[in-house]
Amino acid sequence: MEPAVNGTKNVIMAAAEAKVRRVVFTSSIGTVYMDPNRSPDVVVDESCWSDLEYCKNTKNWYCYGKTVAEQVAWDVAKKKGVDLVVVNPVVVLGPLLQPTVNASILHILKYLTGSAKTYANAVQAYVHVRDVAVAHILVFETPSASGRYICFEKMLHRGEVVEILAKFFPEYPIPTKCSDEKNPRKQNYKLTNQKIKDLGIEFVPVKQCLYETVKSLQEKGILPILKHAEDSVKIQ
Fold first, then answer.
1. 176 partner at 20 to 30 Å CA-CA among 20, 81, 152, 166?
2. CA angle 29, 31, 33 (to 5 degrees)
3. Helix (H, G, I), strand (E, B) or coil at 189
4. What separation in angstroms does the CA of 126 have from each of 1, 18, 67?
5. Is-contact 124 186, C-beta < 8 A?
6. Per-residue confidence at 223, pLDDT binned at 50, 70, 90?
């Protein structure tokens, strides 16, 4: 966590010294939604922050570190007079630039390789990598942009994710059973992306995100092509 916090502080201070016009900081949805005391009826928006004690108690060091780093960014920016705008993306999907698999992509890959025999009773929000890039440009170039911007297209239950994957890629051993069949199916929490949409972004549909993710995994040789896939799959 120390490198993330100190690195963030150093970047904001360097920006202040260089008198840059605006700093756009890439944070995470992990700084927003981790709060067990929030009512299910509350809409999770940019004013929400993750509970640091809860993150520590559940050993969610990713969300803890991201939250502390973003808070440091805001503190230093305020002290140094830096115009800071923050983008808070969710799970980012789409074509890979890197040759290795990151945590977001592994989240999808495990359902295709057979390593995951079941899917979790959980919900997750998704966004295309190109939309995250567009969001950064929009908040940088829009003079009125300020504060934080939650960046996502849609929230899905893991059961919906595997259904979409199975529709496009039925040749893979995609799980059909939930790991938790005793409890009710988890429902989406109320997360809003209205603030970033007001800047004019048009999100890539989540189905296309999933399709392009798998095609990229195939093209990079990370996921074996079990049979010739149709290039003209209609995404609806």
1. 152
2. 65
3. coil
4. 25, 35, 19
5. no
6. very high
Q: How far apart are the C-alpha atoms of 58 and 190, rounded to whole Å?
A: 22
Query: 42, 73, 89 — which closes off a domain?
Result: 89
> E strands, 56-196, where?
84-89, 91-93, 123-128, 147-151, 154-157
What are the CA-CA distances from residue 107 to residues 32, 119, 185, 230, 233 (Å)?
20, 10, 19, 24, 23
| Sequence-ordered list of residues with C-beta below 8 angstroms from that of 234, at least 6 positions apart, any chain | none
Instruction: Say if residue 212's pLDDT is above 60.
Output: yes
- Residue 44 near residue 190, CB atoms below 8 Å: yes
Query: The domain containing residue 52 runs over which residues?
Result: 1-89
Which residue, chain included where needed, has tokens 């399709």?
211
Q: Is 66 a catalytic residue?
A: yes
* Candidate list 66, 154, 207, 215, residue with the active-site label: 66
pTM metric for this prediction: 0.92
The single residue listed with the structure tokens 């202040």 is 16
pLDDT in tens, 51-71: 999 999 999 999 999 999 999
- Which amino acid, 67? T
Same domain, 13 and 112: no
Does residue 232 surpass a pLDDT of 50?
no
| Three-state secondary-structure class, residue 95 | coil
